Amino acid sequence: MMLTTLFRQLFHKPSTNPFPVKYMPRSVTGLLAKVASGEASIHPPIPVPADLRGKLAYDRDKCIGCKLCVRVCPANVIEFLPDDKKIRIYVARCTFCAQCVDACPVNALATTPEFLLADADRFSSNLIVDGRTGSAGVAPTPDDKQETPDAQHTAEQPVNEALPAEQQLPASD
Known about the structure:
Blueprint: H1 2-10, H2 28-37, E1 56-58, H3 68-72, E2 78-81, E3 86-90, H4 99-103, E4 109-111, E5 128-129, H5 142-147, H6 159-162
Antiparallel strand pairs: 1-4, 2-3, 3-5
């Protein structure tokens, strides 16, 4: 199994996108203007591979609340919601290993080809999957953020208070 994967990867062309142009332009916006006017061309992006393990999709109706996905997740990304007997997935910490997808006995979890997940807020609705609104979920309220395993600091508890006394900055009142 491992040898076949190794040989397959050795002889396949890499699935990476080349930089859009041969040389780095002085101005990216200038290059985009030239492309729009037809003066320059860029490399087209390659298609997404069929077996890409992207953002997780969760079918809330299929989920039976067995918690197998919670147990197998190596990054502790999946939170069990005991009131609903459903799960919430924090995609910002996901390693996209798809072990939860393999473990789900009712196929309530699946991977999608979506991989552009950059966001300034790790608790945005783009990075939380709970099955309420398709593959993206509803962002938790500030009360939920305090209970998440990843949230260490809240607006009520400044970062300074979490530091040892000798490392705290002086108060700026």
